[in-house]
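Exercise (ungraded).
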Amino acid sequence: MSEPQNSSQPGKSITVDGVSKIYQSRGGGEVEACRRIDLEIKAGEFVAIVGPSGCGKSTLLYMMAGFSAPTTGQILCGGVAVRGPDIERSMVFQNYALFPWLDVRGNVEFGLENKGVPRNLRTEKVDRHLKLVGLSEFADKHISELSGGMKQRVAIARAFAVEPGVILMDEPFGALDALTRRFLQKELLRIWREQACTVAFVTHSVPESIVLADRIVVMSARPGELKSMIDVDLPHPRDSTSDGFRDLERRIYADLDEELAKTFSAEGLLG
Amino acid sequence: MREERGLFGHLLPYLYAATFIVVVWQLVVTLTKPHVSLLPPPYLVAQGFYELVASGQLFVHAGVSLARVLSAWFLSMLIAVPLGLAMGRSRLIERLVDPVIELLRPISPLAWIPLAILWFGIGESGKIFIVFIGTFFPTLLATVAGVKGIEPHLIHAGQVFGCKSQFALFRKIVLPAALPSIITGLRISFGTGWAAIIAAELVAARSGLGYLIANGMEILRADQVLVGMIAIGVLGVAFDAGLRYVGRRLTWEGAA
């Protein structure tokens, strides 16, 4: 906490300590979204969280962000308990969540302004991050004039510009076409390497998790528990046709297939 | 990318509509030959229009009506917008206020005219009260709808990117996100307020366009009635267009 924030800082750690989350459903019943999750994300690490839909992976991410509190257990960021949303844990949302009343520059500047960064420094940081995502020429454009891929690049610039300790990403490329997605994955890795910070990345795409992450967390079907933890030791850029990549894919799919079978049989769709 | 039409392009549909109405009107007069105190031909009304403009009377009456509507409209905005923002964000406030609103809302502002006269006489405050009733509900409902329609992730993004207090969240996220809806509500409520003031002036006033019409009826001057009606229509359209323009300028929905 005492160290000054700068871009060479390797980010902050995230500790998920015995976290369970139980929701009150509309019908009055209880839904257990996550069950006894223990997870340590090291400072500067890139962790992907994969799992069947409804497994509570987004719930876990939203608890890391501080939008909702765990029912039991606690979440620490840099050793300090998370008590609500904070700019030290910035976020990239699946549907971009850009502010349509601001232009591209205004969106990237938003967090910096709230952080109290002085104007001249703000302009410099915005320019640098727009350049980083290749949108320097679009600074004055309105959000509605951008394509989906460009919007997500603005959202990435907004998240990195505040120089957070952690970036939480909730299926950020889920709504994009395959080519844009591939391109943005590379971009993200480049920016992440340039500006070291911790990343927790939720996705339902196994290949995406292998392309990006240092470590992959596989979650079980609801209630979401930690199913397995897989280190990815392949060198970057990762070739999805290599044997190592294929092996990992097979392992993760094997784990997921087991869980999917549970989900479907619970829903009465399988014998 | 909006296509640029220019002022003439914007006026063209209105010119067409006005021509259409005048032609039908002249046809009715030619075919049915009504008494001039019932339906005068267009040229006589044009003459009456000229006289009321030349004497400055039309401007006085229009100015009085507009001043009443604008002050009441502004006053209702000052209360309805903050209340709507609070209702849109807080379940508790909504549960407390909404039933009261829903009970009062179906009562037309015109139904309040007798009470307004009893309470305030025929002075300005009664008129302002009537227009306030007429403009309050559309503004309030549009504001509530605007706030409730905010994409939840925008609120999340606001919190993540440093809006620490509820006040900051209101100022930087809730208000700008709901603004297009609020402006639409203000535009609609100006229309209902404009209708309400004419009605209030018809019943109890010594000035204003509503009074001009009522007076024309009493002295059997249908041309004066029609001049008043035309002024009401033209001013109503002009203000609506002006508010539309301001709305596009102020909000992001018209930004692209």
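Further reading is listed at the end of the chapter. For now, observe: Chain A has seven helices and ten strands. Confidence is low (pLDDT under 50) at residues 1-8 of chain A.
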